[in-house]
Design goal:
Length: 877
């Protein structure tokens, strides 16, 4: 009898005599129940059904189990104290929460999470954004936008700003002195120091000894490694700040950020100055990708971090580089664990290269003296100060901030810097009159102010002047100072270069195209401007300007200079044995010559019509003492104001009285320093005194330039030698590899050729054997057929012929044939015997000799005269 199935329990109908009944689960209503809840007597089939049938039953069950377990536990004093602290803290938080709820009653029930979400939180499960309701999502987004959630994040204090960072100590080999503790040692130390003990957040140093740099590379390390270190430290501090010190949460992302910010690690860059290293890092910081971090202000704060880290010394730098190496290794490890794509494999290769670079820099830092880092920090601090304290002429003090700059202010500042106007209102009026068109304003202003510059001087005394040659019209600033540095506004600092980079590029290009007549435009871009004017892109081509304003080419300038030298020698060189050795080159070529020879450039502007010119040239300029001094210490260049280049130079240098002499020297950033100018006649002694004073004042600058050039030349030569050695080694390796590859290919070809020949021989043998076998089989079949065609040997009789056949081997065969049989039957008989291996033979008789060839095979034996008997020989043909 089948069991009864009940959906509900009715105890009054149940009897021990009845068959056993089975109940359906009260929860899922799908399976038979196997268990009964001891509290509510509900039947259930499995553990999930028990957990969901009644929260009151499950909670009471868990509570009883916990209480039973707690009864058997004995707490010590430390545990009791911790529990009391937890309860007190919980009580205070509850009180604060109740106060907040009383203050926020106007928010209603919308700020409370749903019961389902609360249950998920209490159970310890994760909550995603999609799990929230529409109202909860709105509240969450509002909290993010208002910055309320950021208050929950504990602010991160960089380890290099902690006081413990000043006491970092490593061994002489670069390893950390304190080794990491085991779990047992760490737990015991934690108990000894108490609950307030916090492990040090200073990144540990290397675990293994740092090898000498000479063991890593065979040549001398680059002299620019200190600047590479600035770039690497900046990228590390940037990444730490970006991830709030928790780069381990996203190892791949943090390693990618390091590659993005650092030109040394990510772009294989090799900055040669601190300014170049910081420029790239600050440009990346101000890029749209990282602009949300604070832009330039955030970048300058990172520069402070770089300075602070360097001031901590070499041990702190080693710990930083060790932590950076671990960061890169962690990113590489996670990339390796993921499914590799082409883009990820490229990142992995970059991370491998970056990890090797960081390790090399770490070994290099370990070998440097401790006082080197304070000097490098001072250099970085100076570059940072020049970037923050830049003062503009028209805009006043430029304070570095992340706020955007008005584009009109940028145009006004660029116009002010080009013409050195100290009245911001005048600049604004000029630009407004030209609808803020910088190119049009420059062209109009330069054409109206060529002859009446506000700073022109009519003084005939000597004065130390400085000419700042920029990308547009030049302006001469006069002062009583004897400093060689350019006067006027100081050059833009690092921060201002970054801020005004786009407008500087545009305005610089416009300045070149404008074609304004002046020393600055001629010195900075004469060849380029002439080329633009030649193809119709100059300012005169589109404005109907005079063709005489075109700048001279290099060849024309050289020809003009050589004509002046020849004319000067004809006029003043015949009566005296000494004269200045004027170079037969254009001004720019002469300036380049002075730069390359580390000398000052002596400029003489010749005015043939001036009354004092002949006496000055004969008595002063061609004096033996002055000529010897100028020829030894200067590069001399002269030009007549009747010539195109001499006239332009007189306008650019604002020569107001002749004879006119000047001393200039090349400077940086397309600037030329006007050190001295002499107007009017002077005696040889006065000229010599002036030139000696200028030479003495310029000697330190020239010496520094010479030393820097020699250092650059040495570095370049070393680099070329290293590159040559590397190329030679590479070529040798390539030649060896090519020779090995060719030898391998030759051996493979020979082996293939031998194998082919062997295979062909085997095939030929097989084919010959097969053909021979086929031939033998064919002969055997032929003999058999011929033997069958002969029929049975006839008995002796009158019509039977007895034939004896002798073979060349001496064997004899005899057989009887019908006399009517043909000669062909004799051939068939011989063939059927198989004694001959040849096919071409004949049957002959000796006496008389008769050859029974193919022409007689149809004759019968009787007709051939072989009846009744015959003796035939087999003769091989």
């Amino acid at each position: 009898m089948a069991d009864a199935v009940l959906t509900s329990e009715n105890r009054s109908n149940h009897s021990p005599l009845d068959p056993p009944s089975r109940f359906i689960c009260h929860v899922c209503q799908k399976q038979f129940s196997h268990y009964t809840c001891p509290r509510c007597n509900s039947r259930y089939c499995s553990l999930p059904c028990y957990k969901s049938h009644s929260e009151r039953c499950t909670e009471s069950f868990m509570r009883e189990n916990v209480m039973e377990e707690m009864k058997g536990m004995e707490a010590d004093e430390e545990t009791k104290r911790k529990m009391l602290d937890i309860l007190k803290r919980f009580h205070s938080e509850e009180q604060e929460g109740m106060d907040d709820r009383m203050d926020d009653d106007d928010l209603g029930d919308d700020s409370v999470l749903s019961e389902e979400t609360v249950q998920k939180v209490l159970s310890g499960g994760p909550i995603n954004f999609d799990d929230l309701s529409a109202e909860e999502k709105k509240h969450f987004q509002r909290a993010v936008a208002s910055g309320e959630l950021s208050k929950l994040i504990e602010p991160w204090d960089p380890w290099w700003l902690k006081s413990s960072a000043r006491n970092i100590s490593l061994s002489k080999e670069g390893t950390r002195l304190v080794q990491p503790l085991t779990e047992e040692e760490a737990s015991s130390s934690h108990q000894d120091y108490g609950a307030g003990y916090q492990p040090s957040e200073i990144p540990p140093g290397p675990d293994t000894l740092l090898p000498p740099v000479r063991k890593l590379i065979s040549r001398e390390p680059s002299p620019f490694l200190a600047y590479h270190l600035v770039d690497i430290i900046y990228s590390y501090c940037f990444t730490q700040r970006l991830y709030n010190g928790d780069w381990q949460s996203d190892a791949i992302g943090s390693a990618t950020v390091v590659l993005s910010v650092s030109s040394v690690l990510g772009q294989t860059g090799q900055p040669e100055t601190v300014l170049e290293a910081l420029s790239y890092c600050l440009e990346r910081t101000c890029s749209p990708e990282y602009r949300h971090m604070g832009g330039l202000q955030f970048g300058l704060g990172l520069v402070n971090d770089v300075i602070h880290v360097m001031s901590l010394g070499g041990h702190a730098l080693i710990c930083l580089l060790c932590d950076l190496q671990k960061m890169v290794q962690a990113g590489e490890k996670e990339l390796k664990a993921e499914k590799t794509r082409k883009s990820k494999s490229d990142i992995r290769s970059k991370l491998k290269l970056a990890e090797r670079k960081v390790y090399f820099i770490m070994c290099w830092v370990h070998e440097q003296p401790g006082e080197a880092w304070s000097s490098l920090a001072a250099i970085v601090r100076a570059e940072k100060s020049s970037g923050m304290d830049y003062r503009g002429v028209a805009l006043g003090v430029i304070s570095v901030s992340s706020q955007p700059i008005n584009p009109y202010d940028r145009v006004a500042h660029e116009f002010t810097m080009l013409h050195c106007l100290e009245d911001p209102g005048l600049c604004t009026e000029i630009l407004q009159a030209h609808d803020w068109d910088l190119e049009l304003a420059i062209s109009s202003f330069t054409s109206n102010h060529t002859d009446n510059h506000p700073f022109s001087s009519s003084s005939t005394t000597t004065a130390t002047t400085t000419t700042a040659v920029g990308p547009s019209n030049a302006t001469i600033h006069r002062s009583d100072s004897t400093s060689i540095a350019p006067a006027g506004a100081p050059p833009p600092g690092l921060a201002w270069k970054i801020i005004t980079l786009p407008i500087s590029v545009i305005s610089g290009s416009l300045g070149l195209i404008s074609g304004a007549v002046g020393f600055g435009l001629w010195a900075a871009g004469g060849v380029l401007s002439y080329s633009l004017g030649f193809i119709g892109l100059g300012s005169n081509s589109g404005r109907g300007g005079d063709s005489s304003a075109q700048l001279v080419t290099v060849s024309a300038a050289s020809r003009e200079a050589m004509e002046f030298v020849a004319q000067f020698e004809r006029d003043y060189g015949s009566g005296t044995s000494s004269r200045p050795n004027f170079v037969g080159e254009g001004f720019m070529d002469a300036l380049t010559r002075s730069r390359n020879t580390f000398k000052l450039l002596f400029v003489y502007l010749h005015s043939p019509d001036h009354l004092d010119t002949p006496a000055f040239c004969e008595g002063t300029l061609c004096s033996e003492v002055l000529c010897a001094f100028v020829n030894e210490n200067f590069v001399a260049w002269g030009g007549s104001i009747r010539g195109s280049e001499g006239f332009k130079m007189s306008n650019s240098l604002k020569a107001s009285r002749f004879p006119f002499c000047a001393v200039v020297m090349p400077s940086t950033n397309q600037r030329i320093a006007l050190l001295q100018q002499v107007e009017g006649p002077k005696s040889p002694e006065e000229m010599l005194m002036i030139l000696q004073r200028v030479l003495e004042e310029s000697a330190p600058v020239l010496l520094t330039a010479r030393l820097e050039a020699e250092e650059r030349t040495t570095n370049m030569r070393l680099r070329e030698e290293q590159d040559a050695a590397y190329r030679a080694a590479l070529e040798a390796d390539q030649a060896r590899e090519r020779q090995q590859r060719e030898e391998k290919e030759r051996l493979e070809r020979e082996a293939a050729e031998a194998e082919r020949k062997c295979k062909e021989e085997e095939e030929a043998k097989d084919r010959a054997a097969r053909e021979a076998a086929e031939k033998d089989a064919a002969l055997a079949r032929l003999r058999q057929e011929k033997a069958l065609s002969l029929g049975a040997e006839p008995e002796k009789g009158p019509d039977v012929t007895q034939v004896l056949v002798r073979f060349p081997t001496g064997e004899r065969k005899e057989r009887r044939f019908h006399s009517a049989a043909t000669i062909q039957s004799l051939y068939d008989y011989v063939d059927s015997l198989g004694y001959l291996n040849v096919e071409n033979y004949s049957l002959v008789t000796n006496f008389p000799r008769v050859v029974y060839g193919t022409d007689k095979v149809s004759l019968s034996l009787k007709e051939a005269g072989l009846h009744p008997q015959a003796s035939l020989f087999v003769e091989l043909n």
